[in-house]
Amino acid sequence: MAPKKPRSFAAALNDQIANEFAAAMQYIGIAVHYDSETLPRMASFFYRQALEERSHAMMMVQYLIDVGEPVEVPDIKGQQSKFKDDVEPVRLAHTQEERVGEEIYKLFELAREAKDYRAEQFMQWFVKEQVEEVALMQDLLNVVERSKNNLLLVEDFIAREAPGEDGDGDAPPEAGGG
């Protein structure tokens, strides 16, 4: 029997595109929760995170187009928008960022093992980005857990600190010129 052919980077990146779009939709679900609780800064933070995840997916789409690989537009299942308390959504966001980090590291590893230098170079930005995203969600989770009895303190924290609002000029281009 012939040895199993390793999975291509393009196929794995298409799967990650689906994961990034799903993450964007989950962030919308979290934003809707905070919007319905009249916590506009928390809602805005997560709406912005949703746009960022969509951006990541579109960067991956553009990369596949640039290297002549097919792009698969994924179906996205519904995401959670109701939570038992106001800490649970941030805990979910933190867990999601940790999972995405592991997915990104596996993609980087796949590119390296395949000696696909273009893909490895492309993934370097995402590795750096995931370190920042996990740290951002850990910080927000710490603040939300300490302030769970008065989330207006979290609203003040977001207004004062503007977490996650510093863009990265070294980001890969997005499909559609985003």
Give a quick rundown of the structure:
The chain is mostly helical and 178 residues long. The protein has helices spanning 9-36, 40-66, 88-113, 117-146, 152-161. The chain is built from five helices and no strands.
Task: Outline the biggest β-sheet.
Answer: none
Percent helix range: 55-70%
β-strand number: 0
Multimeric state of these chains? single chain
CATH topology: Ferritin
Task: Give a structural overview.
The protein is mainly alpha-helical and 178 residues long. The protein has one domain (9-72, 82-163): Ferritin, core subunit, four-helix bundle (Ferritin). The protein is built from five helices and no strands. The protein has helices at 9-36, 40-66, 88-113, 117-146, 152-161. Helix 1 runs antiparallel to helix 2 (40-66), helix 1 runs antiparallel to helix 3 and helix 2 crosses helix 5. The protein is elongated and about 60 Å long.
Could you name the key traits of this structure?
178 residues, Ferritin, mainly alpha, 68% helix, elongated
Topology:
Layout: H1 9-36, H2 40-66, H3 88-113, H4 117-146, H5 152-161
